[in-house]
């Protein structure tokens, strides 16, 4: 697609320091003749960022063009937590660990582009996945005229061999284990690790144990359950076992607990936004616990009308995030509705962690809507008259009775 | 409410044979002077029905007025399975085990009322719960002018002492352990056991182990996982480990598997239709497995558009069943949509059962929509051109870019 | 229902000054022995409030217990306008003129009850309608332990004759034309007039012309169309034909325009919350114009994602207001989402009023999202590449092609 | 995009006989060297099809390759009527006249492609509109591997001058009035006429009168209203003024009535699927009447639960049709739900047509759910006890009271 190639002067690359984005870095320099600005974020993926700086320098990036930032708190506070207020699960199960990180990276790239006067941004996502969409919708929503470079859709390095050759030709250091095709590809941040491809591509075959990296095999998890309490304030988790923690520290702690007890594994065939089904493996140890906990505190403090509306809106909300529409007005509208509901989602839940499961075993709140006197079998001094139920049923039944009479008159039932 | 008391000649009572419904039986005879017809159903609750007949006779019900029916196959085939096609979970978690049984009982009572010329039906549900609503909406939807008697809303036997006195005065046999207040109340059928009340009423306290009756404690479940395959045809499970089974037999088998591995326990604070929160404990061993399995086969065979629409409709569908609107037109409309989607939901899933969890580990289908060639990283002969993604993103981004330009012009972002 | 009668000391009555609420006033004094506090609001119903004060005094209400308030601005600003931001129409057509007034009246009654130490509130709505529900849900949502008196559900004045007799016995003045049964009953406020009952009860018969009071017969409306401009700011109308107007003044002006041109009549069979169908006639001259205008300015300034989400949420939102759940959390959540969308709904629309119709003929906005360059047939310098459409279509088609291939393999299509 | 040009042997062209599709025909022959098969459909656009045959022959299409079909009955019966069962309106207003015709044309082209062994299909829709999407999603859904040619996205005839030159060079007859740029472009079928472009592109300017072709100006419509009855069976219109009519004949008759009275004009700024806003003018005289009529008969015969569910699903359903997803599973699921609801939508409505408006004035049905006795003010022998309302309200209020108590305890309200 030579004809569509843009004239680029300066480009901000989402740079991990790994082989693939190093190749992209070099390719941008050689193909586009562009000055490359690297952006490397700590989102809790569990890798040190120091080497990324060294490697960028080695590849000729000017020191002032190397941006490295620890985004863990911002990530959890402004992206993960708002999403968990919605109990968001894509296709009923996926906790959106990759999807939720992309908008933040996109936003930071755009900020750096503005700061450095760059006219383009670049990401390392492939041409068949969702991430290219998420990155680019983010870019365009924030900077509508930015040029976007997606090397995997543009270049002719379409085989592993071609990539390695390019790397060798350009003096890019190659770790031994990166020469061959990886048995699967991985994305990681503080919320989750995901894997897909190669050994995972047959959905009839169980995921091999070596694919998992962030959780113990439940069979090898402790034989004794562990109890934990989580405190919430206005919909967000704020403390574990009575210890106040910042958002990122709290999620880190939950990840440790989840890892130990083998919680949060998911083997999923999902529907990509680009139109195909794929099979992925996800590990979201802390997130899986957090979901159970949040649902638990909501069950006590959220009104039925609010809770049911949230449940009905959730699939749409999750789909929007999955598809990359974090910065779209309809996501913001749904967020406004969801946030409105969380005012009293404050209190404490208790969970039991054991062999792959996080089970809610107790919840309490100063804002509880549960009224023991009301629910107790005896009719008491409370605001409930058994006879009210008759009227309630009668009027709810009225339209059904009218329907039944029509059926009796000649329609069928 | 004496003034509203109806003139009743014959009444069909949903009769379990237990103490409470025996008291109701006698109360109907003495208070209303009505001829009582008993209906006792085997819904898989796990009790023998023989004693119910004997007891009804003892209490003066004429043999021709005693109806006992094994409804297990009809229950699973026409109620449980259609509901599982929707992956229905009330408030995200509850598998609706009690809710789904009520319409069938109501339907049978109405059929017997017609057969026997009865002018009333009667149930033993209390005045604060959902079941009264479910029974009565069912009655009215099928027979709009039937009289409904709900003793718990009408009588003055409002304490355990009063009930026992009434029983003694009327020669109703009382088992020793029924004299005192039960520590919790229970409902059971082939899909689940539920418990609520008394010892469960503090939602901060963990459910005591003795409340569970249908599942092993996960901690005492086998230390070795068990693998099982489930085959589906058009959305319904038809075989386990290659053995074809009738609906009820299949659910029974799943219950055994779930019991062994401690699967399907749920401790829930839920919102009742009558307006209060209550706390219940549910055990749905087979159902919990079935849900995972059905979601698994759908993930492979259901189109994204259909799957997402189902996810969005589900909360409403579940709410309708929970609230007792099984026979309402809107439930039937949703069912038509759901059933339409299940045409190719055929194939096999493989699950791993272990210590409280049922985990999907594989799925395959002759109608699979998963296309390994399409998803594979290399661009192949298949119908996917990486460049298509650019156009796809560009047009999806167009409105976001227009918004961003407006924001730049003076609106904020 | 003597047994349920509450002990009441002081009661705040929603008092119109008309015969029916005067009877209620007296009945409260005589039956409950309660001190009556009257509340009369000007909601734009088009009646003077002076006589209400005089009549209340005549009926023995102490001067300090007579509350009269002009609520027109608050009504339009805080109830009508927020509702119109949603384009709310119940069952596709009804502009909710009665429904939206009830919460405000309920709120004021509760405020007065608090101020005066009253322990009860009372309304004059009948036992078959929606208004009783709307009033009482409002009362309970704001003051959960308030006693509620609904005379039409309680008393034995169940015929016109009985009412008139009661009035005569209690020296309540009776206008001549109120002695007989009214040919229809009416509710009015600044947003609308509604009529129902008697002459309207056969839904096959056209509404007689004399029922209409707020609009000209379109056939008698001017033969020449009138053009009008309406300006919006953040979703609310603020000016007509360049003249800035307060909310109530603006709606008043729209009502005059609508009256002249015969706009806003509606003959509807609707579904009441209490379970029956009823037939009503509505005149909403200004509201009908406002809806067209608001949709018009939104069409230019609202993003597609926001607009479609609003359209999907609207029926639920309208249903909540119709059913009386203005003060429920789910209505507030939806309002938060809707309000979030209105930030740039600013600009001017032009309408043509003629013989019963308000037609949008033009719209413009500094925040317009319409881009003439983008939409023009020629491919220009703008951000649209025709080839993008191919990729967009291809990826949108991908799942449909996969389905078609499955169908070809053996499934049917 | 030469590199993506497909090898084509035989191509089925949607051919109108007009200048533009004649140019396409010739372009396909000359550029692709393909044998062209023409398909010309009578969808009620109001043009004779004879000339299309003559012109195709003139342009060298073999007689056996010319397909001309009258699709009017199929169009109305299988596309328009099912859509009207849903009361579908895109963005609240647009009756989807163009959108609903595309799937049928696509289907016929695919059928002819199969019959003639063609390997490609071709349409004349431009690269910025929705129709390209609708055609192509239809093609791909029915024949996943068909090649699709979209000349407007491919060729370099990007100006009127280039087109006319190409026509002249290729001996394509050119009507005098087609030499210049048309002042607007038009689509027509039995359901509607639409116009867009050029003179319509400024959304602030009123649509000039000469753009309208299918309706009288309301100001010039008869000064006397006309009454008309429409009979429905199971959701579809079957007779007008007592005369049974086939679907197409019925819609034709409604169009005549609507034309006379100036009904069904719409001036709309809408959101295209491809991401931009456009401004169009629609005339749907018969459809506008049909919508009012169908809503009217539903109001009498449809249960509230069904009606409200339909209202909530409608925007999604309309969006699917607008976006071209007629053949998608989710559209079929929604159709199944909608059709399920129409079983008793049978009866007669009466409308008044006058100066641009179709107003419902009466409705009756053997399956009416309206119960005059139930709704009448007096409490009668019917199944309604005023006291039931109290219980109904009390239980609906229960959760609101609980919320209010929480607010009083320390939360705010």
Task: Summarize the structure in words.
Chains A, B, C, D: It is found in: Cytoplasm. Chains A, B, C, D: Pathway: Amino-acid biosynthesis; L-arginine biosynthesis; L-arginine from L-ornithine and carbamoyl phosphate: step 2/3. Chains A, B, C, D: InterPro entries: Arginosuc_syn_C, Arginosuc_syn_N, Arginosuc_synth, Arginosuc_synth_CS, Arginosuc_synth_type_1_subfam, AS_cat/multimer_dom_body, Rossmann-like_a/b/a_fold. Four copies of one chain form a homotetramer. The mean pLDDT of chain A is 94. The radius of gyration of chain A is 25 Å and the shape is elongated. The first copy, chain A, has 413 residues and is an alpha/beta fold. In chain A, helix 3 packs across helix 8 (247-261), helix 4 (102-116) crosses helix 5 and helix 8 crosses helix 9 (285-301). Chain A is built from 13 helices and 14 strands. Chain A has two domains: 10-72 and 99-178, 3-Layer(aba) Sandwich (Rossmann fold), CATH 3.40.50.620; 185-364, Argininosuccinate synthetase, chain A, domain 2. Chains in contact: A-B, A-C, A-D, B-C, B-D, C-D. Chains A and B meet through helix 5, strand 11, strand 12, helix 9 and helix 10 of A and helix 5, strand 11, strand 12, helix 9 and helix 10 of B.
